[in-house]
Amino acid sequence: MNCRERLISALNHKESDRIPLDLGGTIVTSITRNAYISLKKYLGLEVEDVKIFDYVQQLPYIDEKLLERLAVDVRMVATNYIVTEKQEIYEEDNYYYFYDMWGSKLRMPKKNGHYFDWVYFPIKDISIDELKKYKWPEPYGKEYILKLKQIAKNLYDNTDYALIGTAISGGGIFEQPARIMGMEPFLISLASYKKFADEVMEKITELYIENSIRYLEEIGDMIQVFVYWNDLSTQTGPMISPEIYRKLIKPKDKKLIEAIKSKTDAKIFYHCCGAVKDFIPDLIDIGVDILNPVQVSAKGMDTAELKKEFGKYITFWGGGCDTQHVLPYGTPGKIKSEVKRRIDDLAPGGGFIFSAVHNIQDGVPPENIMAMLEALEEYGRY
């Protein structure tokens, strides 16, 4: 069974020869720059001039030699997250900074900086007049999409990897408003100025639908998975009430997913960190096929219970090893025990793709990363 067949089998809730592995297939299942460099050195691989794909999280383009060495089943064919194709990075005192395609300013400390954070927001007031003045990003151009099509076609025709794509150009429909106006003002608008919040999210939905259709009309028949991210929860519970989600956000999520599914047979991958259990029935209802990252350290995210309750209806992508506590700080033995537990819970009957819980972070020892992957090799065969 080849990589593409293996992933399709898992997505169809069937057991194949082994559990598929994802590393670097999305911007939420990858590895940060410094951890990537450490891992390559540990494996004796040449460390090339590392280029960054996702500036915000400092995620690199991953070298094909490493992906082959680790037997990764997937490859990414995605539009560049938030930034332009040739992103300019500037210096300001003790920081690096850039402006994203939405007009927001992001900044990272020069010393010991791990991520870029949003520090300036172009929408200043909760008012329809302010919204009318805001300059929305332009949809992706034809030339850019055709470049991605060539990448997809080469991978689809000349390899057996499963292909993962996306055309989402910012945070999710709930997330992105906070990135152009600030989290506190947006949450206030959701509670007290619903017309404004609804209009902001509707404009974002329209842009995402247009970008997704442009992308999928060229690439939709070559990808197996389409990625969308929309964090709704903290580690202890929902960030907003399920009622607000169902009234204001769920219909827009549904409209986006329906538009995507009208142009591709790819499965919908929905990334939502934290204690997301209360939202899973809603996600299944709107056509979500895959849940990521399965944050096992969050409240209510017991993998055995999740599999029992929802395993027939949704694929779990992630949850393979707790990236918050176990992977960075555990011994190799503890890591292997963690991986075995998650495989035992999530793998039976298919419907499970292995990756760590979210991106592998800076400071994670390469020995621990390899212990995780060795455990997958040992316990991940059907």
Low-confidence stretches: none
Largest sheet data: 7 strands, parallel
- CATH-defined fold name: TIM Barrel
Overall mean confidence score, pLDDT: 95
What helical percentage do the residues reach?
A: 40-55%
Q: What is the SS-derived class?
A: alpha/beta
Record the strand order, biggest sheet. 3-8-9-10-11-12-13
Tertiary shape = globular
Strand composition percent: 5-15%
Helices, by number, come to: 14
Q: What would CATH call the architecture? A: Alpha-Beta Barrel
Looking at this protein, list some descriptive labels.
382 residues, TIM Barrel, 7-stranded parallel sheet, 4-stranded antiparallel sheet, 13 strands, 41% helix, 13% strand, globular
Describe the structure.
This protein has a single domain, classed as TIM Barrel (Alpha-Beta Barrel). The radius of gyration is 20 Å and the shape is globular. 45% of the residues are buried. Helix content is 41%, strand content 13%. It has helices at 3-11, 33-42, 64-69, 128-133, 142-158, 176-181, 183-192, 194-219, 242-261, 280-285, 303-310, 326-329, 332-346, 366-379, and strands at residues 52-54, 59-60, 74-78, 90-92, 95-99, 105-109, 117-120, 162-166, 225-229, 267-271, 290-292, 315-317, 352-353. The longest helix has 26 residues, at 194-219. The two termini are 13 Å apart. With 382 residues, the protein is of the alpha/beta class. Helix 5 packs across helix 8 (194-219), helix 8 runs parallel beside helix 9 and helix 13 packs parallel to helix 14 (366-379). The strands form 3 sheets. Strands 3-8-9-10-11-12-13 form a 7-stranded parallel β-sheet. It has a 4-stranded antiparallel β-sheet with strand order 4-5-6-7. The mean pLDDT is 95.
